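Kindly review this record before class:
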Amino acid sequence: MAVSNVNQAVALKTPETLKAAIWNHRSVSLAEMLTNAMEEWGLMSKDPAIVTDNAANMVCAVEITGLTHVGCFAHIINRPRKPISNCRMLHAFLGE
């Protein structure tokens, strides 16, 4: 899908508060966007938690908001796979 089509698809399904910040990945901007979206959706009174991919900017953004951050479990268990898969000794041990 072309970037412009993705932008249009996101714009159609995204609340107004997200549209302005959709491509801005700085922690402060993300924190503002998260807070605005939670308020717009009426979730701030429900003690929400934010699940992210554990990227530093996302973790920092959630910390700025004061909300609970939960790291994505799939991203956490996938993290060590990449360095391990490049280990020559492991490949030799497995006979690959």
